[in-house]
Amino acid sequence: MSEHFDVDLFVIGGGSGGVRAARIAAGYGARVTLAEEYRVGGTCVIRGCVPKKLMVYAGRFADEFEDAAGFGWSVPEPRFDWSVLKRRRDAEVARLEGIYDTNLMRAGVEIVPQRAVIEDAHTVRLVGSGERVRARFILVAVGASPVKEPVIPGADLAITSNEVFDLEALPERILVVGGGYIAVEFAGVFAALGSRTTLLHRGDRLLRGFDDEIRDALGDAYAKRMDLRLGRTVQSLERRGEGIAARLDDGSEIEVDQVLVATGRRPNVAGLGLERVGIALDRAGAIPVDATSRTTIPSIYAVGDVTNRANLTPIAIREGHAFADTVFGNKPWCVDHRLIPTAVFSTPEIGVVGHNEDVAREIYGAIDVYKASFRPMKATLSGRDEKVLMKVVVDCASDKVVGVHLFGHDAGEIIQAVGIAVTMGATKADFDRTIAVHPTASEELVTMRVPAVTKRPVAVG
Description:
Layout: E1 7-12, H1 16-27, E2 32-35, H2 42-47, H3 49-68, H4 82-107, E3 110-112, E4 116-120, E5 123-126, E6 132-140, E7 144-146, E8 173-177, H5 181-193, E9 196-201, H6 212-225, E10 227-230, E11 234-240, E12 243-248, E13 253-256, E14 258-261, E15 265-267, H7 274-277, E16 300-302, H8 313-328, E17 342-344, E18 350-354, H9 357-364, E19 367-374, H10 377-382, E20 388-395, E21 401-407, H11 411-423, H12 428-432, E22 453-455
Parallel strand pairs: 1-2, 1-6, 2-3, 6-16, 8-9, 8-14, 9-10
Antiparallel strand pairs: 4-5, 5-6, 7-15, 11-12, 12-13, 17-18, 18-21, 19-20, 19-22, 20-21
Helix pairs in contact: 1-4, 1-8, 3-4, 3-5
């Protein structure tokens, strides 16, 4: 007798990856249930990329008001109202959440607003109601959560990137701890909106893993916009009157109104029931999966940040789509994690696709590096002390472009288009024969003729 299942697919987690997988699977005729204990939309929509980008836009108006004078505009002294931004941002998030709900329901997906845990290879228990659901396949798409690491005395006084969206007022003074995407972006936001901002990172450069020259350019830009402290750590936090005193490893103190810790995120696996079915976590606390996103249990899959492969929303979406196509659509394919365009919404922005110089040299041996560094056209009249940096990394043997690194206005928009070319395997010759769009900053990508650096393998012996 064939085994009875209540649904074909049970998705645990209503973020980007889970929602995409549920919709695509339902489109193939699968019976799908999705459980989400908080809000449908996940980190990106509810308390991540989307609301943060809206705050980035808000902060950049400060530069626009200041720059306008150089172009003949007389702008009255601007005044920022945090409550207006918060209200309108939250309303937009709620609107997007409603769209996610509607799209799922239109696809025929049942949404259950409860926490779900795994009981066996085919059974999920809804914690609120106690109901058990038998599923042919289970997809874990629960994402990750921010952590306050390392643990220090007074850590409970700090907030994370979750709670930052709940602030009822703009802090007059804020300390941001961390050196990755989240720390860099929020430090830029608060500095732009008028907070006296300190960005503190234990390393000697921000954004580990990015191109060193891009990292240096960001550090120089941020040092002009805020109090940037590198090579420092926080030893303790202590309530002092209405503020918080942060003691640093060099014995100094910083008094602020808020401390935002953005030092890392960990997969949301606690209490999920993975150990009950024999799924062992990896060293990072993530769920190990194969190229098809399947775990060691054939009926259980996982996508997105909970797998710690490439923790970006578009990757979770593609993983969810690939899963549904493969399992329910008879269209097997896997996500290629080797070439991922990405952006950091600092001010100025960073856009990257492919490898930096060091990694490219390890992989390809001989490489050429083309560079352009210049003052953006807009800054010639505004007088803003700002620069644009662009780098193109080329494999000498094949002439393929294997890395593009941008620092400057709209780098995120530019890198999306460049990412198409690099993903298709464009060569430097392809770039060279592309007609420039003038006058733009991005035309530099197709007008760099002479390598600034040529790196070849070091002879041994």
